[in-house]
Write a structure and sequence with these properties.
Elements lengths: L12 E5 L6 E2 L3 H13 L18 H12 L5 H24 L4 E2 L3 H9 L4 E6 L4 H10 L8 E3 L10 H13 L8 E5 L2 H9 L3 E5 L6 H6 L4 E3 L5 H10 L8
Parallel strand pairs: 1-4, 1-6, 4-5, 6-7, 7-8
Antiparallel strand pairs: 2-3
The structure holds magnesium ion.
The site of magnesium ion has 10 residues, from loops.
């Protein structure tokens, strides 16, 4: 079967998907790659303990800034390049290794949902993720959902996730040939940081409780729609329709 072609033109709505905890669960491969890549890039620190990292909703550039500070390394372009070159390779290898052990999965209903949305001429699909673009491509390809997304905003565009919405919107404008108003955009994500990032540029938000945050935590941040997961196809597709008619939050 031919993969769907990313759509150009005619799109009325822009859907910005987070990756980790929303579409996939790498079950630890991401974190493993981060620490292995760090010690590979900076072997002089290999005797020191790796600090705990709060990955949910973070950006990769935000995480590396935190690591540089923790290990007393200067935040130089050379250091960033050295880390991320090593990270992308480690990530691909970790995902392969984990999958041989049966670890790492697409979250429930994701492929059905993406198939249905890709078949809707009204919507454009993009990613809005804290992963670097290279890291995002490795993850999406590993789980065979890369063909759904042709544009996005990434963790190497800015270390602050709240800055990524306007970048994704601009790239979608170039791709689709039209401007998207905030009321025509929805961010789909699993953390409070996804909700904050949507609010930062006035977009709608669908929160899904398949990641780091509990349903109660997400509910307290008042997303436009809150789903347990994407497994109930009719209900989920209905949510993707109705989110655009929900009133703006107070
Ligand atoms: Mg996430």
């Amino acid at each position: 079967m031919m993969p769907p072609t990313p759509k150009v033109g005619g799109c009325a709505r822009l859907l910005l998907f987070d990756i980790d905890g929303t579409l996939i669960d790498t079950e630890g491969a991401g974190l493993r790659s981060f620490s292995e890549a760090f010690y590979l890039a900076f072997p002089e620190h290999s005797g020191q303990l790796f600090p705990p990292l709060e990955l949910g909703g973070a950006t990769d550039h935000g995480l590396i800034m935190h690591l540089f500070e923790h290990f007393g390394l200067e935040d130089l372009p050379l250091h960033r390049r050295r880390f991320f070159e090593s990270y992308t390779g480690k990530l691909a290898a970790s995902l392969e290794h984990f999958s041989k052990e049966g670890r790492g999965r697409l979250l429930p209903g994701v492929v059905d949902l993406l198939d249905a949305l890709a078949g809707d001429d009204d919507v454009a699909l993009a990613v809005l993720t804290g992963n670097t673009e290279a890291g995002a491509r490795v993850k999406l390809r590993h789980f065979q959902i890369d063909h759904y997304f042709s544009v996005g905003a990434y963790g190497d565009d800015h270390h602050d996730r709240n800055e990524l919405g306007p970048i994704a919107r601009e790239r979608a404008r170039q791709q689709c040939g039209r401007e998207f108003r905030s009321s025509e955009i929805v961010v789909i994500g699993d953390t409070l940081r996804d909700i904050a990032c949507a609010r930062a540029f006035g977009a709608k938000v669908i929160a899904v409780a398949t990641g780091a945050a509990t349903r109660a935590e997400l509910a307290a941040a008042s997303p436009d729609i809150l789903l347990d997961d994407f497994s109930d196809r009719e209900r989920v597709l209905d949510a993707f329709q109705s989110v655009f008619s929900s009133p703006a939050p107070a």
